[in-house]
UniProtKB/TrEMBL annotation, chains A, B:
This protein's name: Maleylpyruvate isomerase
UniProt xrefs under PROSITE patterns: GST_CTER, GST_NTER
UniProt domain GST C-terminal: residue ranges: 86-210
Pfam families given in the database record: GST_C_2, GST_N_3
Entry superkingdom: Bacteria
Keywords: Isomerase
GO molecular function, one term: maleylpyruvate isomerase activity
Record flagged with keyword Isomerase: yes
Domain GST N-terminal: 1-81
NCBIfam families documented for this protein: maiA (TIGR01262)
Lineage: Bacteria, Pseudomonadati, Pseudomonadota, Alphaproteobacteria, Hyphomicrobiales
EC number: 5.2.1.4
Protein backbone atom coordinates (compact mmCIF):
# COMPACT_ATOMS: atom_id res chain seq x y z
CA UNK A 1 0.00 0.00 0.00
CA UNK A 2 1.01 3.61 -0.54
CA UNK A 3 -0.04 6.51 1.66
CA UNK A 4 0.13 9.98 0.16
CA UNK A 5 0.51 12.45 3.03
CA UNK A 6 2.37 15.32 4.62
CA UNK A 7 4.10 15.14 7.98
CA UNK A 8 2.06 17.95 9.49
CA UNK A 9 -1.36 17.08 8.01
CA UNK A 10 -3.54 16.00 10.89
CA UNK A 11 -5.80 14.04 8.51
CA UNK A 12 -2.81 12.01 7.26
CA UNK A 13 -1.64 11.62 10.89
CA UNK A 14 -5.00 9.96 11.78
CA UNK A 15 -4.49 7.37 9.03
CA UNK A 16 -0.86 6.76 10.03
CA UNK A 17 -2.02 5.89 13.56
CA UNK A 18 -4.69 3.53 12.17
CA UNK A 19 -2.20 1.74 9.90
CA UNK A 20 0.26 1.36 12.80
CA UNK A 21 -2.43 0.02 15.17
CA UNK A 22 -3.45 -2.53 12.51
CA UNK A 23 0.17 -3.51 11.99
CA UNK A 24 0.11 -2.54 8.31
CA UNK A 25 3.14 -1.06 6.63
CA UNK A 26 2.94 1.28 3.66
CA UNK A 27 5.19 3.35 1.47
CA UNK A 28 4.87 6.99 2.45
CA UNK A 29 4.70 9.49 -0.38
CA UNK A 30 4.98 13.04 0.95
CA UNK A 31 3.42 16.04 -0.80
CA UNK A 32 4.61 19.38 0.53
CA UNK A 33 1.37 21.26 1.12
CA UNK A 34 3.00 24.64 1.73
CA UNK A 35 4.72 24.35 -1.66
CA UNK A 36 1.41 23.40 -3.33
CA UNK A 37 2.56 19.93 -4.41
CA UNK A 38 -0.95 18.57 -3.74
CA UNK A 39 -2.15 20.60 -6.74
CA UNK A 40 0.12 18.84 -9.25
CA UNK A 41 -1.99 17.32 -12.05
CA UNK A 42 -0.70 13.79 -11.34
CA UNK A 43 -1.90 14.06 -7.74
CA UNK A 44 -5.23 15.69 -8.62
CA UNK A 45 -5.85 12.72 -10.91
CA UNK A 46 -6.04 10.45 -7.86
CA UNK A 47 -7.40 13.00 -5.37
CA UNK A 48 -9.59 15.62 -7.11
CA UNK A 49 -9.87 17.62 -3.90
CA UNK A 50 -6.11 18.16 -3.81
CA UNK A 51 -6.02 17.09 -0.17
CA UNK A 52 -4.04 14.50 1.77
CA UNK A 53 -4.25 11.67 2.65
CA UNK A 54 -4.85 9.32 -0.25
CA UNK A 55 -4.35 5.58 0.17
CA UNK A 56 -3.52 3.30 -2.77
CA UNK A 57 -4.32 -0.26 -1.72
CA UNK A 58 -1.92 -1.95 -4.10
CA UNK A 59 -4.62 -3.55 -6.28
CA UNK A 60 -5.48 -0.36 -8.16
CA UNK A 61 -8.04 1.04 -5.71
CA UNK A 62 -7.62 4.61 -4.55
CA UNK A 63 -9.18 5.79 -1.28
CA UNK A 64 -9.59 9.38 -0.13
CA UNK A 65 -10.86 11.19 2.99
CA UNK A 66 -9.22 10.08 6.23
CA UNK A 67 -12.38 8.86 7.98
CA UNK A 68 -13.49 6.83 4.95
CA UNK A 69 -10.02 5.29 4.76
CA UNK A 70 -10.05 4.42 8.47
CA UNK A 71 -13.56 2.87 8.28
CA UNK A 72 -12.33 0.81 5.30
CA UNK A 73 -9.21 -0.30 7.21
CA UNK A 74 -11.42 -1.27 10.15
CA UNK A 75 -13.78 -3.27 7.92
CA UNK A 76 -11.00 -5.08 6.05
CA UNK A 77 -8.55 -5.51 8.95
CA UNK A 78 -10.83 -5.82 12.00
CA UNK A 79 -8.15 -6.31 14.65
CA UNK A 80 -7.78 -4.34 16.79
CA UNK A 81 -11.19 -2.72 16.24
CA UNK A 82 -11.34 1.07 16.05
CA UNK A 83 -15.10 1.24 16.69
CA UNK A 84 -17.19 -0.50 19.38
CA UNK A 85 -19.66 -3.23 18.35
CA UNK A 86 -22.82 -1.64 19.80
CA UNK A 87 -24.53 0.75 17.33
CA UNK A 88 -25.18 3.47 19.92
CA UNK A 89 -21.57 3.35 21.14
CA UNK A 90 -20.36 3.47 17.53
CA UNK A 91 -22.50 6.58 17.02
CA UNK A 92 -20.93 8.24 20.08
CA UNK A 93 -17.39 7.53 18.86
CA UNK A 94 -18.19 8.65 15.31
CA UNK A 95 -19.88 11.83 16.54
CA UNK A 96 -16.76 12.76 18.52
CA UNK A 97 -14.53 12.05 15.50
CA UNK A 98 -16.80 14.10 13.22
CA UNK A 99 -16.89 17.01 15.68
CA UNK A 100 -13.15 17.25 15.02
CA UNK A 101 -13.01 16.17 11.36
CA UNK A 102 -15.93 18.38 10.24
CA UNK A 103 -16.14 21.25 12.67
CA UNK A 104 -12.57 21.98 13.78
CA UNK A 105 -10.03 20.79 11.27
CA UNK A 106 -11.43 22.12 7.95
CA UNK A 107 -12.09 25.56 9.48
CA UNK A 108 -8.40 25.95 10.42
CA UNK A 109 -6.59 24.13 7.64
CA UNK A 110 -3.96 25.69 5.38
CA UNK A 111 -6.40 26.37 2.56
CA UNK A 112 -8.90 28.32 4.69
CA UNK A 113 -6.18 30.29 6.49
CA UNK A 114 -4.64 31.20 3.11
CA UNK A 115 -8.04 32.41 1.95
CA UNK A 116 -8.34 34.63 5.03
CA UNK A 117 -4.97 36.20 4.21
CA UNK A 118 -6.15 36.82 0.63
CA UNK A 119 -9.08 38.77 2.11
CA UNK A 120 -6.56 41.04 3.81
CA UNK A 121 -7.05 39.62 7.31
CA UNK A 122 -3.98 40.43 9.44
CA UNK A 123 -1.70 37.56 10.50
CA UNK A 124 -2.56 37.85 14.19
CA UNK A 125 -6.27 37.65 13.36
CA UNK A 126 -5.64 34.58 11.21
CA UNK A 127 -3.98 32.84 14.16
CA UNK A 128 -6.84 33.98 16.41
CA UNK A 129 -9.31 32.42 13.94
CA UNK A 130 -7.49 29.09 14.04
CA UNK A 131 -7.28 29.21 17.85
CA UNK A 132 -11.01 30.02 18.06
CA UNK A 133 -11.94 26.99 15.90
CA UNK A 134 -9.80 24.72 18.08
CA UNK A 135 -10.96 26.17 21.40
CA UNK A 136 -14.64 26.06 20.55
CA UNK A 137 -14.46 22.54 19.13
CA UNK A 138 -12.23 20.99 21.79
CA UNK A 139 -14.35 22.50 24.53
CA UNK A 140 -17.39 20.63 23.11
CA UNK A 141 -15.25 17.47 22.74
CA UNK A 142 -14.27 17.68 26.42
CA UNK A 143 -17.97 17.67 27.32
CA UNK A 144 -18.68 14.77 24.95
CA UNK A 145 -16.26 12.47 26.83
CA UNK A 146 -16.80 13.75 30.37
CA UNK A 147 -18.35 10.86 32.24
CA UNK A 148 -17.02 8.27 29.77
CA UNK A 149 -14.69 5.65 31.22
CA UNK A 150 -11.02 6.39 30.45
CA UNK A 151 -8.22 6.61 29.99
CA UNK A 152 -8.91 6.87 26.24
CA UNK A 153 -11.82 8.95 24.90
CA UNK A 154 -14.21 6.01 25.09
CA UNK A 155 -12.86 3.38 27.42
CA UNK A 156 -9.67 1.42 27.89
CA UNK A 157 -8.74 0.98 24.22
CA UNK A 158 -7.97 3.60 21.57
CA UNK A 159 -10.75 4.22 19.03
CA UNK A 160 -11.43 6.40 16.01
CA UNK A 161 -12.07 9.21 18.51
CA UNK A 162 -8.48 9.12 19.79
CA UNK A 163 -7.13 8.91 16.22
CA UNK A 164 -8.80 12.27 15.56
CA UNK A 165 -8.09 13.84 18.94
CA UNK A 166 -4.32 13.40 19.21
CA UNK A 167 -3.45 15.17 15.93
CA UNK A 168 -5.94 17.96 16.70
CA UNK A 169 -4.40 18.66 20.12
CA UNK A 170 -1.09 19.17 18.29
CA UNK A 171 -2.73 21.77 16.04
CA UNK A 172 -4.38 23.50 19.00
CA UNK A 173 -1.00 23.94 20.72
CA UNK A 174 0.59 25.29 17.53
CA UNK A 175 -2.11 27.98 17.46
CA UNK A 176 -1.49 28.89 21.11
CA UNK A 177 -4.59 27.31 22.66
CA UNK A 178 -4.31 26.62 26.40
CA UNK A 179 -5.21 22.93 26.35
CA UNK A 180 -5.09 22.60 30.15
CA UNK A 181 -8.79 23.52 30.00
CA UNK A 182 -9.46 19.99 28.68
CA UNK A 183 -8.26 17.55 31.38
CA UNK A 184 -10.26 14.59 30.07
CA UNK A 185 -8.81 15.06 26.56
CA UNK A 186 -5.31 15.30 28.04
CA UNK A 187 -5.91 12.05 29.93
CA UNK A 188 -6.63 10.35 26.59
CA UNK A 189 -3.55 11.95 25.05
CA UNK A 190 -1.34 10.73 27.90
CA UNK A 191 -2.64 7.19 27.40
CA UNK A 192 -2.01 7.40 23.64
CA UNK A 193 1.56 8.60 24.22
CA UNK A 194 2.32 5.22 25.80
CA UNK A 195 1.45 3.38 22.59
CA UNK A 196 4.11 2.94 19.91
CA UNK A 197 1.52 3.10 17.08
CA UNK A 198 0.68 6.67 18.11
CA UNK A 199 4.27 7.73 18.82
CA UNK A 200 5.57 6.45 15.48
CA UNK A 201 2.83 8.34 13.60
CA UNK A 202 3.74 11.74 15.06
CA UNK A 203 4.69 14.50 12.59
CA UNK A 204 8.29 14.84 13.85
CA UNK A 205 8.92 11.12 13.23
CA UNK A 206 8.09 11.33 9.51
CA UNK A 207 10.76 11.34 6.80
CA UNK A 208 9.49 14.66 5.39
CA UNK A 209 9.49 16.43 8.79
CA UNK A 210 11.14 19.85 8.80
CA UNK B 1 -37.94 9.70 18.23
CA UNK B 2 -37.33 13.43 18.25
CA UNK B 3 -35.22 15.29 15.72
CA UNK B 4 -33.87 18.67 16.74
CA UNK B 5 -33.27 20.68 13.57
CA UNK B 6 -33.79 23.83 11.55
CA UNK B 7 -35.53 23.94 8.21
CA UNK B 8 -32.54 25.40 6.38
CA UNK B 9 -29.77 23.38 8.07
CA UNK B 10 -28.34 21.10 5.43
CA UNK B 11 -27.03 18.72 8.11
CA UNK B 12 -30.56 18.31 9.53
CA UNK B 13 -31.88 17.98 5.95
CA UNK B 14 -29.57 14.97 5.38
CA UNK B 15 -31.04 13.22 8.43
CA UNK B 16 -34.62 14.07 7.42
CA UNK B 17 -34.04 12.33 4.07
CA UNK B 18 -32.57 9.27 5.83
CA UNK B 19 -35.52 9.02 8.24
CA UNK B 20 -37.99 9.32 5.35
CA UNK B 21 -36.19 6.68 3.26
CA UNK B 22 -36.25 4.31 6.24
CA UNK B 23 -39.95 5.02 6.79
CA UNK B 24 -39.36 6.35 10.31
CA UNK B 25 -41.44 9.17 11.71
CA UNK B 26 -40.18 11.58 14.35
CA UNK B 27 -41.29 14.69 16.17
CA UNK B 28 -39.50 17.69 14.73
CA UNK B 29 -38.21 20.24 17.23
CA UNK B 30 -37.01 23.36 15.41
CA UNK B 31 -34.27 25.63 16.79
CA UNK B 32 -34.00 28.96 15.01
CA UNK B 33 -30.28 29.19 14.27
CA UNK B 34 -30.35 32.84 13.18
CA UNK B 35 -31.93 33.74 16.52
CA UNK B 36 -29.29 31.71 18.41
CA UNK B 37 -31.76 29.23 19.88
CA UNK B 38 -29.17 26.45 19.50
CA UNK B 39 -27.14 28.15 22.25
CA UNK B 40 -29.88 27.87 24.90
CA UNK B 41 -28.51 25.97 27.94
CA UNK B 42 -31.19 23.27 27.67
CA UNK B 43 -30.09 22.52 24.09
CA UNK B 44 -26.36 22.71 24.85
CA UNK B 45 -26.98 20.07 27.53
CA UNK B 46 -27.86 17.55 24.80
CA UNK B 47 -25.61 18.95 22.05
CA UNK B 48 -22.48 20.61 23.50
CA UNK B 49 -21.47 21.85 20.04
CA UNK B 50 -24.67 23.92 19.77
CA UNK B 51 -25.30 22.52 16.31
CA UNK B 52 -28.23 20.78 14.68
CA UNK B 53 -29.26 18.02 14.17
CA UNK B 54 -29.62 16.04 17.39
CA UNK B 55 -31.67 12.84 17.45
CA UNK B 56 -33.29 11.53 20.64
CA UNK B 57 -34.09 7.86 20.09
CA UNK B 58 -36.93 7.66 22.62
CA UNK B 59 -35.06 5.39 25.05
CA UNK B 60 -32.89 8.15 26.51
CA UNK B 61 -30.06 8.00 23.99
CA UNK B 62 -28.96 11.23 22.34
CA UNK B 63 -27.15 11.19 19.00
CA UNK B 64 -25.31 14.09 17.39
CA UNK B 65 -23.47 14.76 14.09
CA UNK B 66 -25.53 14.03 10.99
CA UNK B 67 -23.22 11.37 9.50
CA UNK B 68 -22.99 9.48 12.81
CA UNK B 69 -26.79 9.59 13.09
CA UNK B 70 -27.22 8.31 9.53
CA UNK B 71 -24.70 5.46 10.03
CA UNK B 72 -26.60 4.52 13.22
CA UNK B 73 -29.94 4.59 11.39
CA UNK B 74 -28.42 2.40 8.67
CA UNK B 75 -27.06 -0.09 11.20
CA UNK B 76 -30.30 -0.30 13.21
CA UNK B 77 -32.79 -0.02 10.32
CA UNK B 78 -30.93 -1.67 7.41
CA UNK B 79 -33.65 -1.33 4.77
CA UNK B 80 -33.23 0.31 2.37
CA UNK B 81 -29.43 0.39 2.81
CA UNK B 82 -27.69 3.75 2.50
CA UNK B 83 -24.25 2.23 1.96
CA UNK B 84 -23.14 -0.56 -0.40
CA UNK B 85 -22.02 -3.93 1.03
CA UNK B 86 -18.55 -4.00 -0.52
CA UNK B 87 -15.91 -2.26 1.67
CA UNK B 88 -14.26 -0.44 -1.23
CA UNK B 89 -17.60 0.83 -2.53
CA UNK B 90 -18.56 1.91 0.99
CA UNK B 91 -15.29 3.86 1.16
CA UNK B 92 -16.10 5.63 -2.14
CA UNK B 93 -19.58 6.63 -0.94
CA UNK B 94 -18.28 7.78 2.45
CA UNK B 95 -15.43 9.76 0.85
CA UNK B 96 -17.93 11.64 -1.32
CA UNK B 97 -20.16 12.33 1.70
CA UNK B 98 -17.17 13.52 3.76
CA UNK B 99 -15.94 15.76 0.92
CA UNK B 100 -19.21 17.66 1.45
CA UNK B 101 -19.67 17.23 5.21
CA UNK B 102 -16.07 18.14 6.13
CA UNK B 103 -14.75 20.30 3.33
CA UNK B 104 -17.71 22.31 2.03
CA UNK B 105 -20.45 22.63 4.61
CA UNK B 106 -18.52 23.68 7.76
CA UNK B 107 -16.53 26.29 5.81
CA UNK B 108 -19.72 28.06 4.71
CA UNK B 109 -22.05 27.55 7.67
CA UNK B 110 -23.73 30.36 9.62
CA UNK B 111 -21.14 30.32 12.40
CA UNK B 112 -18.13 30.73 10.11
CA UNK B 113 -19.80 33.41 7.99
CA UNK B 114 -20.73 35.31 11.16
CA UNK B 115 -17.10 35.13 12.27
CA UNK B 116 -15.98 36.59 8.91
CA UNK B 117 -18.36 39.53 9.44
CA UNK B 118 -16.92 40.05 12.92
CA UNK B 119 -13.49 40.38 11.30
CA UNK B 120 -14.89 43.26 9.25
CA UNK B 121 -15.13 41.32 5.97
CA UNK B 122 -17.65 43.06 3.66
CA UNK B 123 -20.93 41.28 2.93
CA UNK B 124 -20.14 40.70 -0.75
CA UNK B 125 -16.83 39.08 0.20
CA UNK B 126 -18.63 36.87 2.73
CA UNK B 127 -20.95 35.61 -0.01
CA UNK B 128 -17.96 35.14 -2.31
CA UNK B 129 -16.28 33.03 0.40
CA UNK B 130 -19.34 30.78 0.70
CA UNK B 131 -19.60 30.48 -3.09
CA UNK B 132 -15.88 29.61 -3.30
CA UNK B 133 -16.24 26.79 -0.75
CA UNK B 134 -19.19 25.35 -2.66
CA UNK B 135 -17.64 25.74 -6.11
CA UNK B 136 -14.32 24.21 -5.15
CA UNK B 137 -15.92 21.31 -3.29
CA UNK B 138 -18.67 20.51 -5.78
CA UNK B 139 -16.19 20.61 -8.63
CA UNK B 140 -14.19 17.84 -6.89
CA UNK B 141 -17.44 15.95 -6.17
CA UNK B 142 -18.36 16.07 -9.86
CA UNK B 143 -15.03 14.38 -10.65
CA UNK B 144 -15.53 11.78 -7.91
CA UNK B 145 -18.75 10.50 -9.53
CA UNK B 146 -17.84 10.97 -13.19
CA UNK B 147 -17.70 7.46 -14.60
CA UNK B 148 -19.91 6.03 -11.86
CA UNK B 149 -23.17 4.44 -13.02
CA UNK B 150 -26.17 6.76 -12.50
CA UNK B 151 -28.60 8.20 -12.12
CA UNK B 152 -27.75 8.63 -8.42
CA UNK B 153 -24.21 9.46 -7.29
CA UNK B 154 -23.27 5.80 -7.01
CA UNK B 155 -25.67 3.67 -9.01
CA UNK B 156 -29.41 3.21 -9.32
CA UNK B 157 -30.33 3.69 -5.66
CA UNK B 158 -29.84 6.70 -3.38
CA UNK B 159 -26.98 6.42 -0.88
CA UNK B 160 -25.36 8.49 1.85
CA UNK B 161 -23.68 10.42 -0.98
CA UNK B 162 -27.01 11.69 -2.34
CA UNK B 163 -28.21 12.54 1.18
CA UNK B 164 -25.27 14.94 1.45
CA UNK B 165 -25.35 16.19 -2.14
CA UNK B 166 -28.97 17.36 -2.45
CA UNK B 167 -28.90 19.74 0.54
CA UNK B 168 -25.50 21.09 -0.52
CA UNK B 169 -26.71 21.92 -4.04
CA UNK B 170 -29.43 24.01 -2.39
CA UNK B 171 -26.80 25.95 -0.46
CA UNK B 172 -24.67 26.41 -3.56
CA UNK B 173 -27.58 28.02 -5.42
CA UNK B 174 -28.37 30.31 -2.49
CA UNK B 175 -24.78 31.60 -2.69
CA UNK B 176 -25.08 32.19 -6.44
CA UNK B 177 -22.97 29.27 -7.70
CA UNK B 178 -23.62 28.27 -11.32
CA UNK B 179 -24.35 24.59 -10.75
CA UNK B 180 -24.72 23.86 -14.48
CA UNK B 181 -20.98 23.15 -14.34
CA UNK B 182 -21.82 19.86 -12.56
CA UNK B 183 -23.99 17.82 -14.95
CA UNK B 184 -23.39 14.51 -13.19
CA UNK B 185 -24.40 15.98 -9.83
CA UNK B 186 -27.53 17.49 -11.43
CA UNK B 187 -28.41 14.07 -12.85
CA UNK B 188 -28.37 12.67 -9.30
CA UNK B 189 -30.44 15.61 -8.06
CA UNK B 190 -33.04 15.07 -10.79
CA UNK B 191 -33.35 11.41 -9.80
CA UNK B 192 -33.71 12.36 -6.12
CA UNK B 193 -36.47 14.86 -6.95
CA UNK B 194 -38.62 11.95 -8.10
CA UNK B 195 -38.50 10.35 -4.65
CA UNK B 196 -41.01 11.44 -2.01
CA UNK B 197 -38.53 10.86 0.85
CA UNK B 198 -36.29 13.57 -0.62
CA UNK B 199 -39.12 15.93 -1.57
CA UNK B 200 -40.73 15.78 1.89
CA UNK B 201 -37.40 16.57 3.56
CA UNK B 202 -36.85 19.81 1.64
CA UNK B 203 -36.46 23.02 3.69
CA UNK B 204 -39.62 24.66 2.30
CA UNK B 205 -41.74 21.68 3.39
CA UNK B 206 -40.81 22.02 7.05
CA UNK B 207 -43.14 23.50 9.67
CA UNK B 208 -40.54 26.13 10.67
CA UNK B 209 -39.89 27.25 7.05
CA UNK B 210 -39.97 31.03 6.55
Amino acid sequence: MKLHGYFRSSAAYRVRIALNLKGLSTDHLPHHLRKGEQCAPAYLAINPQGLVPTLEDGTGAVLTQSLAIIEWLDETHPNPPLLPKDPLRRAKVRAFALAIACDIHPVQNLKVLARLRQLGVAEEKVTEWAAWANREGLSACETLVTGEAGPFCFGDKPSLADLCLIPQLGNARRFGVDVSAYPRLLEAEAAAREIKAFADAAPDKQADAE
